[in-house]
Write a structure and sequence with these properties.
Blueprint (H helix, E strand, L loop, with lengths): L19 E4 L5 E5 L5 E5 L4 E6 L27 E2 L27 E8 L11 E9 L5 H6 L4 E10 L2 E10 L5 E7 L2 E3 L6 E4 L6 E3 L5 E3 L6 E2 L4 E5 L6 E5 L2 E9 L3 E6 L1 H6 L13 E15 L4 E9 L7
Antiparallel strand pairs: 1-2, 2-3, 3-4, 5-10, 6-7, 7-8, 8-9, 9-21, 10-20, 11-20, 12-15, 12-17, 13-14, 13-16, 16-19, 17-18, 18-21, 19-20
């Protein structure tokens, strides 16, 4: 499938180290790195980002030690792409025959190529970046998925690695004539040191759906989110930046574009035990999901229309002089 917005040629030849992109020997994974030391790994299965390391080589994403990386099922960890439905599909909706979270995280995507921006005429390479594009269309689905959701679509998923920063964006196009609806989410598992010391701020003024509390809608808490048991909340209609802190240290800042809903999740002890692909046993202590999405209600796309959304996660101080 074609890639949208192909980059124009750079006017000058870069000097010094440049971003590097390679494909694994089996063709199942794309790896990109910057001269600064930043690095990402992306499986073609689900176009799932399974690793993001900052300039100090610290892993920013949680990947289950039992995650299936062979394409047999969705990856437990990293950044799975949820489309065209979030959660269990409604029984009375066009997505009702689909599995939970849809099919995008369970199929092989096409690697469309890279574009990069290198430091030119300077001694520093810290302004380098590299963008990887991945595509999925209705033509790539198996017959079972096509029967369950018989709509024409094309997705372009762009993953941009910068110094101390990761940006992901999803372009969803109705490639047919008939109107259809969708919800979508970037199911991001962030790695942390100790969940008991973690707080998530930026959602204090936002009401939420408490999925642990019977899916009841609750008023804004007025304070940062902290964790002392299973937590599964859907915050809606919010555009504020989100900070993930561990103790007094801000680990990540998250900015969203076109995705006004946020899911915050940690399975805690009992729920993690019930997931066969979750590990290590105490892995729930080292992860928190803060997931940007558009899930409050279904979005309608007319034939030929396009929707875009995504987020950027930044490691504070990573680009400071």
């Amino acid at each position: 499938m074609p890639r949208a917005d192909r980059p124009s040629a750079l006017p000058l030849s870069p000097t010094g180290p440049q971003p590097l992109v390679s494909t694994s020997d089996d063709g199942d994974k794309v790896v990109a790195s910057l001269p600064s030391g930043d690095r990402i790994e992306v499986l073609l299965h689900g176009a799932t980002v399974i690793s993001w390391k900052g300039p100090t080589n610290n892993e920013q994403l949680f990947l289950s030690s039992k995650a299936a990386l062979d394409g047999s099922k969705a990856v437990r960890g990293g950044i799975p792409v949820v489309f065209p439905v979030f959660g269990p599909p409604p029984k009375d909706h066009a997505t009702s025959a689909l599995p939970q979270h849809g099919f995008a995280r369970n199929v092989r995507w096409e690697y469309l190529g890279k574009s990069s921006s290198e430091s030119i005429g300077t001694a520093s390479a810290l302004d380098s970046s590299v963008k990887l594009d991945f595509g999925l269309s209705s033509a790539q689905l198996d017959e079972k998925s096509k029967k369950a959701w018989p709509h024409e679509f094309s997705l372009v998923y762009s993953i941009t690695l910068m110094t101390g920063e990761l940006g992901v964006s999803l372009e969803i196009k109705n490639a047919g004539e008939a109107t259809w609806e969708f919800t979508t989410l970037l199911h991001t598992y962030f790695r942390i040191g100790d969940i008991s010391k973690v707080s998530v701020s930026g959602l204090e003024k936002t009401s939420f759906i408490d999925k642990v509390g019977g899916a009841a809608t609750k008023q804004a808490a007025g304070s940062p989110i902290t964790f002392s048991g299973e937590l599964d909340r859907v915050y809606t209609d919010t555009t504020e930046p989100i900070l993930i802190k561990e103790g007094s240290t801000t680990k990540l800042e998250i900015l969203r574009d076109g995705m006004s809903d946020v899911v915050v999740w940690n399975p805690w002890i009992e729920k993690s035990k019930g997931m066969s692909d979750f590990g290590p046993e105490d892995g729930w202590k080292q992860m928190v999901c803060v997931e940007a999405g558009a899930v409050k209600s279904f979005i309608k796309l007319e034939g030929g229309e396009t929707w875009q959304g995504g987020f950027r996660a930044r490691i504070p101080g990573a680009t400071d002089d």
